[in-house]
Write a structure and sequence with these properties.
Layout lengths: L2 E8 L2 E8 L2 E4 L7 H14 L7 E2 L4 E3 L8 E5 L3 H6 L11 E4 L5 E2 L5 E3 L6 E2 L2 E7 L18 E8 L2 E2 H7 L2 H5 L5 E2 L4 E3 L2 H4 L6 E6 L2 E7 L7 H11 L7 E3 L13 H10 L2 H12 L11 E7 L6 E11 L1 H8 L1
Parallel strand pairs: 6-18, 8-14, 9-20
Antiparallel strand pairs: 1-2, 1-5, 1-15, 2-3, 3-4, 6-7, 10-13, 11-12, 11-18, 12-15, 16-17, 16-19, 19-20
């Protein structure tokens, strides 16, 4: 069975534990990072039993299960449906699109997220997060049948994005890395080798104010975990605890204009004018997140055997920035 690991604050100190229902079995070890936890306490994570779950979940404050000094790597346009809603052609993206988010944007799954005062086009993206079990040596070729040798588990990621920064400026990192723009969790769900074979059956759902916006099975990914790990191993160092967000399906607030509009913008409007028109039109789109909006994200198999929990986020206003602009 999967093992549901959470990081939490209790009695003024961060701690790790295994969740059984609504009670926590404290791990009782000092691990400053997710990588240290997985490197040094892997066997203990699997040895705890339900009889040791004595701490009620309601008595603790949830923390993100991926700590802030781990790498945060992302895949873009990794679902055909998202490629199409972005106004792109799949044939133009035969490669795996990779970028990073700042680890400092990671926040707990139930923490409110402040929309910066200068951001008007705040978008959401539900993604399956993969967490490395161990360092991935240069040149490693990952077998799809042996993901558990390299991956510890899975978690829910919301790749929040300031589209009015990301798109006009052409900066994914900048538009996606504001503090709070990376809700992760609530848990890191460790999988057995047999359960890793079921990752394509994980069903993602994201709702805003109770309205379903995104849903898809992870098996719809274009570039799966094994291929992505193999490619990353040829590019850079990866360590235990590092996080890979694997892309989002259709249903985001951002939409591409129709083909005729795209043609006019491309041939008759300057680059600066094009983005002014895009932003002016997008501001009228009610799907973008506003202060007061509540998001609910879940990822689980349809039979419930693998359940990553529920991520809940309240969008709030940046009162300090708004006050500064008003004065």
């Amino acid at each position: 069975m999967p093992r549901t690991v959470i990081r939490y604050q209790h009695d003024g100190a961060p701690a790790w534990g295994v969740l059984f229902g609504q009670h926590i079995a404290p791990l009782g070890v000092a691990a400053a990072s997710t990588g240290q936890l997985l490197d040094e306490h892997w066997d203990r994570l699997w040895s705890l039993s339900e009889s040791q779950a004595t701490l009620p979940r309601r008595q603790v404050q949830l923390l993100a299960p991926v700590t802030s000094r781990q790498q945060f790597i992302c895949q873009g346009v990794n679902y055909r449906s998202h490629v199409e809603e972005s106004g792109l052609q799949l044939d133009d993206f035969p490669f795996n699109t990779l970028f990073t988010k700042a680890p400092s944007c990671i926040t707990p799954a139930d923490a409110p997220v402040v929309r910066p005062g200068h951001v008007q086009l705040l978008d959401y993206e539900i993604e399956l997060g993969l967490v490395l079990r161990r360092a991935l040596p240069h040149g490693t070729v990952v077998d799809p049948e042996n993901l558990g040798a390299w991956l510890a588990g899975v978690t829910i990621v919301n790749d929040l994005s300031a589209r009015d920064v990301q798109l006009p400026q052409g900066q994914f990192y900048k538009g996606k890395s504001y503090r709070g723009f990376g809700p992760v969790g609530p848990a890191l769900v460790l999988l057995t080798p047999q359960e890793w074979a079921r990752w394509p059956q994980l069903h993602m759902r994201l709702s805003v104010n109770g309205q379903l916006r995104q849903q898809a099975y992870c098996g719809e990914m274009i570039h799966g975990p094994a291929a992505t790990l193999t490619e990353l191993a040829a590019l850079q160092d990866l360590e235990a605890g590092d996080l890979i967000a694997t892309g989002t399906p259709a249903g985001c607030a951002a939409r591409a204009p129709g083909r005729l509009v795209m043609f006019v913008l491309k041939h008759l409007v300057s680059e600066a004018g094009k983005w002014r028109l895009f932003i002016d039109k997008a501001r009228k789109n009610p799907a973008y997140l506003r202060p007061g909006d509540r998001l609910s994200l879940s990822i689980r198999t349809d039979d419930g055997a693998i359940d990553l929990g529920e991520q809940t986020t309240l969008i709030t206003a940046d009162e300090q920035e708004e006050a500064a602009h008003a004065s």
